[in-house]
Amino acid sequence: MMTGFKTHKSDMHFSFFFVISTLSLCVQSYQGLRIKSLEERILHLEKMIQQNCACEKERKITHGKVLMGETLIKANLNKRVKRTTGLQQIKRNSYMCAFSSILSKDLPNTGRTQTIVFDHVITNTGNAYNRHTGIFHAPSNGIFAFSWTMNSEKINGHFELMHNSKIITAISTELTNLEIGTTSATMVLQLKRNDVVFIRTDHIYGKTNIVSNVLMRSSFSGWQIF
Questions:
Q1: Which residues of 135-205 form beta strands (DSSP E)?
Q2: For residue range 15-63, what is the model confidence (pLDDT) as tens digits?
Q3: Which of 57, 156, 161, 212 could staple 103 via S-S, CB 3.0–4.6 A?
Q4: Strand runs (DSSP E) across the chain, as ranges?
Q5: Is 41 exposed, middle or buried (0-12, 13-18, 19+ CB in 10 A)?
Q6: Same domain, yes or no, for 106 and 121?
Q7: Which residues are paired to 83 by β-bridges?
Q8: Are residues 57 and 112 located together in one domain of the fold?
Q9: pLDDT in tens, 50-104
Q10: Distance CA 211, CA 153 (A)
C-alpha cells in the first residue's frame, strides 16, 4: 500500500511539473510572437515615418520651387508691364502736342479762302503747328480740340475751320452798329496722322478786315486730348 501511494504521488508531481513546463513554454512562445509582432509593427511605423518625412521634405522643396517660380513670373510680368508702360508713355509723350498762336498785327482786305497765318506762337509743344503757313499737322491718330477767336472791322468777317479740304464749321462777326465785331468757337476733331487743320476766310464773301492788336487778339489754339 505504501509503495502504491508513493508511486501515485510521484506521478502527480511529474504531471504537475509537465503542466507547468508546458504552460511556461506556451507563455514564452506567445511572448516571443508578441515581441516579434511588435518589432514588425515598429519597423513598419519607422518606414512610414521615414516616407512621410521624405514626402514632407519633397513637398517643402516643391512648394519652395513653386513660390520661387511664382516670384520670378511676377517679377518678369512687372518688368514687362513697366517696360510696356514706359514705352507707351514715351510714345504718348512723343506724339502729344499743344499749340497757341496769335496774329501779331491787323490783316486788312483779305480775299476768299485765304488761310489765316497766326504768326506769333505762344506755345507749340510737339512743333505740330507751322507759324509760317498757319497750318496744324496731326503728328498721330487721335482726338484733338481746336479753339479760335476772330475780330473784324467795318466789314463782317466769315471764317471757316478746315480739316484737310473739308469745311468743318464756319463762324461770323456781326458788326451791327459797332465798328469792330468778335466771334469764337471750339471744335473737337478725330484726326489721322498727317491730317491738316487751319482757319481761312470763307469761300463766299471772303473780304474783311481782321483786327489783332494789344486790345483784342485774333488767335488759334489746339491740343491733343488722347
A1: 135-137, 142-153, 158-163, 166-172, 180-191, 196-201
A2: 656 656 666 666 566 666 667 777 777 887 778 887 777 777 777 777 7
A3: 212
A4: 98-102, 120-125, 129-130, 135-137, 142-153, 158-163, 166-172, 180-191, 196-201, 219-224
A5: exposed
A6: yes
A7: none
A8: no
A9: 777 777 777 777 776 667 777 777 777 777 766 766 555 545 555 689 999 999 9
A10: 6
